[in-house]
Amino acid sequence: MTKTPRTLKLALRGEALLEHPQYNKGTAFSARERNEFGLVGRLPVKVNTLDHQCERAYQQLKTAEKPIQQNEFLQSVKVQNWVLYYSLLGRHLRELMPIIYTPTEAEAIANYSRSFRRPEGLFLTFCNADSMEADYLEQTRGRTIDLIVCSDAEAILGIGDQGVGGIGISTAKSAVYTLVAGIDPANTLCVVLDVGTNNKSLLDDPLYIGWPHARVRGAEYDAFVDKFVQLVRKHHPHSLLHFEDFGVDNAQRLLELYRDKHAVFNDDVQGTGAVTLATLMSAVGVTKSKLSDQRIIVYGAGTAGLGIAAQIRDAMVVMDGVRKEDASGKFYMIDKFGLLTKGLKQAGKTRQNFPDDFIRTEDDWTEGQTSLLDVVKRVKATVLIGTSTHAGAFTREVVEAMAAHCDRPVILPLSNPSKLVEVHPKDANDWTGGKALIATGSPFEPVKMPNGKKDYVIAECNNALIYPGLGFGCILSKSRSLTDTMLIAGTRALASLSPALKDPDDSLLPDFGDAPDVNFHVAVAVAEQAIEEGSAGVEWGKDEVKERARQARWEPVYQEYVYDVEGLRD
Length: 570
What we know:
The chain is about 45% helix and about 10% strand. It is an alpha/beta fold. The two termini are about 20 Å apart.
């Protein structure tokens, strides 16, 4: 249901109004508004509806042949007119999400300095640390800030260290929050923490516009990040702070450091873990088993792989009532050296801060017998998760070994982009005779099933199916932290919407085109859990959550403007 447009009092006139993306309507300004705000003569005479504008913009978009060109066009729309930008995206959500986010945004970020036209967001640079608070307040003073998305750009979308270009991932994530969760873009702040870069091609590029310095590490880095976090806590204590694309040595560490002090979220750790957990919950619903019954191999022991294992492990504890150490024992983490064992860690072949919870200690895991295939055969794995970016790692022999001992093996090749997927879903389907329950990190076409069954829809295990709702629920409830139980509540809400629960041969997750409705349900579940457990900062009860959520959602519709020289706003 679309809300009734409000009447806004504005003091902006003429060119200043047309240049303000929050308020600009372009050709949709009414005749009265054109007269009142000094726009007659600045616009063609025809008054368009938003529908007309979206149709025109979409036709213009389609003239761009390459995805990166479409990305640039959409960015130009965004800096001119927020309502048009989000309305256009919402009408073509499935088609345009890969253009404004992964995989196309990675190319835009990699070329950020060379294609730079206009700044967007807040650039906090290490060499200007002394003025950080003044710089922060310059952009936020007098504003309501509900959401802050920040990155230090060390691990961008599979392309690594991108320095100041990381502002692009902050703005892209923020846009998705608005697009599918309805968070007001005026109440968001996108930040890049420019602590230098170790990307030699950037440092050698005279057109690089970030701080041309080696990436700061250690105590200086920690102090800089802490100064930023304390500013957020001081000036916007009820905001959600979203960390994005931090490096493997910092992502989990910073999350654990701050999550009990502020509402903090890391999508690479928690979002990836939550959407994968929802996928697995759907799969165990199909197999009529429990999470704690599974034997899970995670191939790729980086930030995403560890986040997934931790989320599923914690869910086993909460939902199945098993001890944490027993739940941890259900996982087998594999990286380029093979199964992560105590001996491997002692030999310095794993990250030294990798948690011992997921390190195997059995004496009989001897060197040379810990490959992916060895582990699949030995433990009779029921779930195989790929976060390695090792294309083709799930070979036919590995997949057939899964199917040999498991009626419905769960195979989740989640690496992005699609060219880096551990196994093509068609192969996984064919090699298991249509038995596998499959979800991927990138979109794939449905695959043919044996025996004339309908095509199997490959679920897209996309974080955007859940992280905007998790954030919206936290913001709505003004929660002091985003707790594990709130995350699980949102995950359960997503899993409950799985088409596979009605038809075991259907997709494990809802269609991505339904992401706005899905995230609404997630947000409601999160806010209800926050109120129930006492972490919320609101005075209303669970019975009001749905209506409060509906009222809080920002929608891309034009408001009616009335000129007011005092600049009052209803």
